[in-house]
Amino acid sequence: MAGEEPVTIEKMEKKLLPLRGKREFVYRVYAHDRPITLRSIAETQLVAEVPFVLSAYYLDSIRTIEHPHPDKGEGRTPLVGGARAKRDPVPQYVIRKGAGPLARGYGLYVRTITRPGRTYYAVVTALNGREAVDMLNGGNSLLEAVDERVAPPGPVWQSQTVRKPDDRRPLPWVVGRYNFWLEFPYVNVPRQLQVAVGHPQQIDPRRELPLYVHLGAYGGQPAFYCRQGGGYQVMLCPPYDQDDSMFQGQHEDLGTLKSYDQGVVHNWAQRRTFALMDWAVRQWPIDTERITLRGQFCCWALRYPQRFTSVLGDAYGNNSKGREAQKHGPLWGPYPQGSKNWAGVDHWEWMNLCKYIREDPTKELPYYVSFPYSASHVGDMGPWPWPELYRALHETKRAFCARWGNCRAGAPPAIAMAERIKMHQSLPAFGDCSLDDNPGDGASDPGSAGARRPPTPARSASPRAAASSSGPSPASSSGGPARRLRAAGKSKAARPRPTSGASSPSRTSSSPQERTAFASAAELAEKMGRA
To answer: Based on the domain organization, do 142 and 177 belong to the same domain?
Structure first.
């Protein structure tokens, strides 16, 4: 890998893997509040061991491959997680926007500061666990201390491309790639992950943009989803960490020598998402009243109405059961039992979002649009778990819209309305719709999961909760007296007529237009603008 020859994961494996178990060469980084010398090094703190060669290369930027072909150089590697395109060139890290990449032969260590101060650092080499330190001077030990201050974490820019306008995006669209160096409380062991951000090339600082947080799906990468964006918005694509299962977190003792009873489950990916949202608000003029989250595993965000205006994606709302959740059970405790989480609750219990929704119907929820995601055809990620969440939302008169079907059914037109909704805005209320009787039972044939429920009295509610999309007796969106809105075609018809409001989906619908009880998204969005 000398000279100007491109470095690839495939070449790294050929050079480095045969050395494993024979020569373990690392850099050791020491820190102290006084200059580090041969006499004082025994008093210092060892803060990191940095692997030789690999530390300067941005391995996580290499494409992930959901279905790898070994003959094309695709597959898993011990050098970085996931199946990768191992013949793609691996870039070196950039540590400052506008600067060039690190030169070959350099190593890189990034430390997150947790308290202010002045710190001296020294770097020594260790071969097979033994250090060879016969000199510490300005070449490997700082003569001046580093003035360190605590600041909110943020990713570091690595590269960007500009996509030209086309039929999907009216404006030039910048796709920026970042690396996020992380420590506790965002990961259990230090690591780095990829982040991508998309935005218009020209931004008027006087005009606030909505923030669109795209979590992606199994097998995806932030830059991939960011390239699909466009329009006058900021699209934030957090790292899709396949180790942080279904965005539900994992136990802090995994990857360490500790046992389950020495720690708890933490929601690492959710914390990273919040930290990145705060960082994006500091970087661009963002309207914090219009923040949308989208993703295959998105329902956890329904717990955070103070952070999200609307949530779009699959209706996998009860992760406490189902085959897909069971596959990840050991990451949440001594499976089949679970461990307590950061909130002091058994994590399996915490993941039952349907129970959370039913326990207190007065709690605010973001506006929710459910639709089959691109990977919803796999096992329990498909429609089987959805009716439980639909019923919980319907019975507690929450604002939501849903479309039933497989991964090719598409999203309901209401998805276009999500970015127009503001966090503290009332929504139109519709109910007693033709599809309320039967949201389906997850079977592939027309089922009958929902027997007709008797009407329940209307309740006074906060603006967002009053916008129940399919409750039998909703309050009006203006906060006035409750009205009963009866949709046409109230009988259990196989071809329900569209109404101007949302309804639970029906398995008996025979076309995408009939699978949702929405008329025109543009018309509804126009009404929303006048509300």
So the answer is: no
